[in-house]
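Hi there,

I know you've been waiting on this one. I reran it after we fixed the sequence typo, so this is the corrected version. Both the input and the resulting structure follow.
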Amino acid sequence: MTIIQWFLFFLAVQLIHFAGTWKLYQKAGKQPWQALIPVYNAIVLMDIIRRPKWWVILLFIPIINLMMFPVIWVETLRSFGRNSAKDTALGLVSFGLYIYAANYDPTTVYEKDRSLVPKTWFGEWINAILFAIIAATLVHNYFIQPYIIPTGSLEKTLLIGDFLFVSKFHYGARTPTTAIAFPMVHDTLPIVKSKSYIDFPQLPYFRLPGFKDVQRNEIVVFSWPADTVRQFFVKEKGVRKPIDKKSNYVKRCVGIPGDTLEVVNGFVHINGKQSILPERAKTQYVHYAYNAKGVSSRKLNEEGIKDFTRKYRIENITQQSYDEILPYIHGRISNDINNFIVITPPAGLPPKLIGQLRLRVKEILEPSKELVLTIAEAALLNEKQLFDSLVRKVSRVKTPNTSIFPNSLPYDWNEDNFGPIVLPKAGATVNLNEGNLPLYKKIIREYENNSLDLQDGRILINGKEVSSYTFDQDYYWMMGDNRHRSEDSRYWGFVPENHIVGKPVLVWFSIEGINDGIRNWRIRWDRVMTTVKGEGKPISFFPYFIGAVVLWQLFAFIRRRKQTTLD
């Protein structure tokens, strides 16, 4: 909906409110015209129903207002003697229109001194739950939101299974654009797995003021700018969602508006210089380890390398034993019952389980193995001479690749050699031609909502021939630290400013093996309550937190003992 449409809708709501309440205002000792003035009528109504005037603010906060309106309807009915469960139900199912019955009923009387305390324990419980949800939703939408890291694109920096607190106020919180949505969830209702929102109506985009801009090399949570997914780990065609309901991603912002970015042999260059990442950033690349006698998984585990696979041959597999080992495997290579080959993570198949199932198992030592390593890790392994050779993967051959941004054949970029490209900045103007149009067409059409056509070599924007374009907003470049295991801006391009969600500030919990079934979960206690930003190895503040809680409980106990003694 446009701003004008929303304005007309707002006026219609005011007229509906006036028609259904002006007599109630009069019976409460107010003037009928006070029910007509926008905002002021809400302030007066709070006085009538004896509720704090700051509630009015909640009526204008998206999502929060959906929970507040039913509260106001019920409170209004109760202020005029409609206290029964039937009255409450009619008020809710009629979306507040039942108030009309009270307004035009000549016997309706204003109860000025009514009790605000719920008359039953159930009513008290409902009130407590409702306002707890309102408070939590307010924090969730505008201040701090929890997230879980589901993939390994930032592995060794942020791990799969890290539970994050993401600050929305650092960059300024986005107000919800989806007007009707279930509170406290993103795009999908738990258990039932259905949409948690209604597409229409949509509010205009607005971002509250923040106290800082996105900085180069900061880790950022943002809405996936490409055609998003219905849910993670489900392979299907991308779907369209409102901007605030798109799938959330977390990457490192390697380029900010105005930067000239280039990837050279896997290394990011900004404005002609190789980018220097923060100390905690653990940039990783695929390496190929070669050993004529086979690459030893045991030695890799001893070195603390965790991102590789192992192969096992099982000679006497049965359906029952396969079901038992299934949680420990990632896939199968051969289904031959006498030559059954499976792929496992670095931990391999548990020896105890193999013994219990009496399986004949032998690991296949491969002459080459794909490892994901930092440059420092690779250098250390080379020093130890664990392999005949260790080579970093670099895609140097440039061929037309439509899977790489801008997804156009004339551009022969790849994941390791990309650009140069200038990141658009709000207010900046770029000359347009057929050659560079693929870089900016998504910005023009989707992110800035213009029509774009190419006719006989002429570029038409909103029906007018143009030779340049001025950007409406800033754009960023996001990449994962796990450079060969990350779907990022190299594949779907620029990230608009209006897609920025927030800044991760704290890992409040962490579970290793979170995607491998609950029996494989292990809590990473050293990561609990650690900051995302900082120098050196992350330090857990969990012991200090526990200490503070213990001291507080001790203080409370002593205070209670003293109070008991005085009594």
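Quick highlight: Residues 279 and 535 are 6 Å apart (CA to CA).

Best,
R. S.
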